[in-house]
Specification:
2 copies of one chain form a homodimer.
Chain A lengths: L2 H6 L2 H4 L3 E11 L4 E8 L8 E2 L2 E3 L6 H13 L7 E6 L10 E11 L11 E8 L10 H18 L13 H12 L5 H9 L4 E7 L9 E5 L1 H13 L4
Chain A binds a DNA duplex through helix 6.
Chain lengths: ~240, ~240
DNA sequence: AGGACTTATTGTAATAAATACAAAATCTAT
DNA sequence: ATAGATTTTGTATTTATTACAATAAGTCCT
């Protein structure tokens, strides 16, 4: 399309596009990392597995929309999502020009009970390493979101959303091991945690284990936020 | 809006939105970091400074659009841009629902000659620390893009787009110092560069300086890409 | 009660990276 | 030739990373 053509398109013709949000909800249960998929009960891609996503209302903010769509399809409420990337290939959606903004979150799988609603026929957790063929470009979106999640985890205590309120350092280590598919040395891992002052050691011990019980820890958000502020101020290369 | 309402909205009503791209083009000249702004010659926000941006054609991919828009408004060609973030507040655009996808790049200011075209009345470089009031939510977008740029620079040789083909290590250091607004130790900086094998030392020396001339270096992209591959394979926490 | 078992927790020695300086080298200009 | 400026290398100190060993503290079983 040349520059001339720009002026030959009536302004209203631009307002014939739509956008959607797609939610990449990762679930963690201490054992594996899964992603929440729905089975589409409507065309296009009827009966395909897909990320929960739908068109954004004309007067709806994007992040609000992500949560509303997630609620409508999976009955999950108030998941704090963060934006990942926008996908806009011209032919990615068969019904017309639809770009989609991907959002992601990581949640504690076992304490949630997603169930299908609206045009979703099913909701199901799938291990991130074993995902079926997906509708649209949702495989690309999922891959992108997983990368994003790993990067986030290097900078932020994502595990705070996902571990029990009181947890052991081993549980914390396992979170990283499962996310990064990599083992870490136990002693060295603990050494690193020593100067994370937002890890508050409790006097309480682990119960009902057939070996030496571990000390329990809590995440101290106050301390974390203060420390983060300092880091941001001193940020260096 | 409740779930019921979803089905009362005709599908066509969703296709009444538009999206735009906005380009945050940073310019570097060895002395300061600037951003390219245009003066808008059309409503809304006529006569305001703004990021170069415009509506995306109905059948145009987003990254293609970013370059086309940039060309139309500033006459710059073939700037490789990367996506930053999508901004979608309901009322961010007075003419209707328009979300915008922000793209960014960093270019060598002195070798480019942007000049206004289409509805742009002026193009001008502004130091990133001293930007006028901008149209729409462009100040937020600019801030976001600058953060993004700094993060990119920690992981990639952005300076390769910006330094002369043959450059000194001091020029390289100054790039980081200006971007991060922070001085580095000369000796230690050079030490770090020693195991960057993509920095190819030439036998040639700097000319026309009234002091000991520095050795010149070139960026060896081949070596860089190989090394990057290895890193990606071994990636660790 | 006592030993086997399992995991938690601390420690240590070796290596590598980051930091703060200082010294030496090499060009120009006078 | 010498002063001035900046490049370039070096060194000693501190701080982080790594690999591994030793000890501690519970449970389970006999």
């Amino acid at each position: 399309m040349s520059q001339q053509d720009l002026y030959s398109i009536p302004i209203d013709d631009f307002f014939k596009s739509a956008f959607s949000v797609d939610c990449v909800i990762f679930g963690y249960d201490g054992k594996s990392l899964d992603v929440l998929l729905i089975k589409r009960g409507t065309e296009p891609f009827k009966d395909f597995w897909a990320l929960p996503g739908d068109l954004v209302y004309p007067a709806e903010d994007l992040d609000v929309s992500a949560n509303r769509v997630l609620h409508d399809l999976t009955s999950l409420d108030d998941i704090p999502v963060t934006q990942v990337h926008t996908f806009g290939k011209v032919n990615r959606h068969p019904l017309g020009r639809v770009i989609t903004i991907a959002y992601t979150a990581i949640v504690e799988k076992s304490h949630l009970n997603p169930h299908p609603a609206s045009w979703a026929e099913a909701t199901e957790w799938h291990p991130v390493g074993d995902v079926p063929k997906l509708a649209f470009d949702h495989e690309e979106i999922l891959g992108n979101a997983l990368l994003h999640l790993k990067n986030l985890a290097k900078a932020e205590p994502l595990w705070a959303n996902v571990l029990p309120k009181k947890f052991t350092l081993t549980q914390l280590q396992e979170f990283y091991e499962i996310l990064f598919e990599k083992k870490f040395d136990k002693g060295n891992f603990r050494k690193k945690t020593r100067d994370m002052h937002f890890l508050q050691k409790l006097s309480e011990l682990q119960k009902n284990v057939n070996h030496r019980p571990s000390a329990l820890y809590e995440f101290d958000e106050q301390v974390y936020l203060e420390q983060k502020n300092v880091q941001d101020l001193l940020f260096d290369l």
